Queue: 2 jobs
Job 1
Amino acid sequence: MSETPYPQHTALSLAASGIPVLPLRRGKVPFGNCPACADNACGGRPNMRVPGPCRCPSVCHAWAAATTDPAVIVSPQWAAAWRRAVCVAYHPGGAGLTVLDLDDADAITWARTALPATRTVPTTRGEHWIYQGAMPSRNAVRPGVDIKSTMSYARWLGPGNGTMTALPDAVRSLAVKEPSPPRRAPQTLSGLRTGGQGECPHRTPVFLERGVAMAEQRITEASSAVHATVYRTFLAVLSRHGRCGCLTDDHVTRLFTAAQAKGETLRHCTDAWTNARTTLGM
């Protein structure tokens, strides 16, 4: 994409629409902190991960500098930055938006298959898909896909095409992180069963069979966020069937087979199962 002509004019127009903006310098990165704010010595700006407000009038602190105040945008302190700016960025979360940054053709193909259509903006190598609604930002949620919303910035590349739709759960689930797996010795499949001694709630074998079959179906039908779906499904199975010791190697194998058919590795399945047990205190 070409550099934005008259970036200050573009910034004022966006700010008037309620979109917090900031300038980007060559390399399409934010301007660095001033000496007084270096290493967050000032305490940081509001909504940053460090406490305390910063009243520095300079273009400091990356996304946290984004503003809708025209007086700030045209201020002498920002003037030098605009003269050096090559484009305008905005804080999607501050505008109640989420940008799904699709970096290549494969990512775009996945999005068209797995996600509801929304407003799209072409980028140098891919597309930005813009949804109405804010969420935590996270990079590399899947190959070629980043999420830019709260505490992040995205380049302004134009208004885009199409009607903006509400942020779907399929995008929110991409940012869900599983607990880090605890250090452990290698486990056999039998070692993954709980072997609990609690009271068995299964009045008939059909109850347990139906629960495992529904879990297999949930994993098989996942069209996105497979990692998160596998973990949550394992968590649900263990929370209902894991404490009485009725789960067998066959049940675990069926769940792992369904997950591996969706592209998960045996190691990821084992980690997800162990993490679910740890979460439940098993």
Job 2
Amino acid sequence: MTEDNQKLIRHTLTHLLSRREHGFNELLLKLEQKGFEQEDILPVLEKFKQANIQSDSRFAEMHYRSGINKGQGKTRIKEVLKQHKIDDCDALAGFSEIEVDWFELAWVVKCKKFGELPPKDAKEKAKQQRFLLYRGFSYEQIEHALTNEVNS
């Protein structure tokens, strides 16, 4: 690997990480798409990881916070992290940073979309259940959200 190539990779990594957190594999893919060879990228990327400039656990925490703000449940957030190839250890580190009442969040998401009243019939209940399931909430959280008329 040439010195110029290494500088270019470092510069590109610095630029990407200055905007937002990225996962290790995401950075690897982005650099490969820019025409760099994997054997040139990996040593530089490993140095960034060892210096804690790039961190999969910070990336997981960012996605965790973002998902909560979007009204997504734990299952949906975990699936996004799995798509970014974040290992379970780093994903769990992000989840342990913030305390969330998933039942409360499911209820808030349901109220925002459908209002506070419980579903009027089985068809409406099924529609709300599908919506909350798609958002990544568990069946218990969904049942809680659909049966509570008042935020408790």
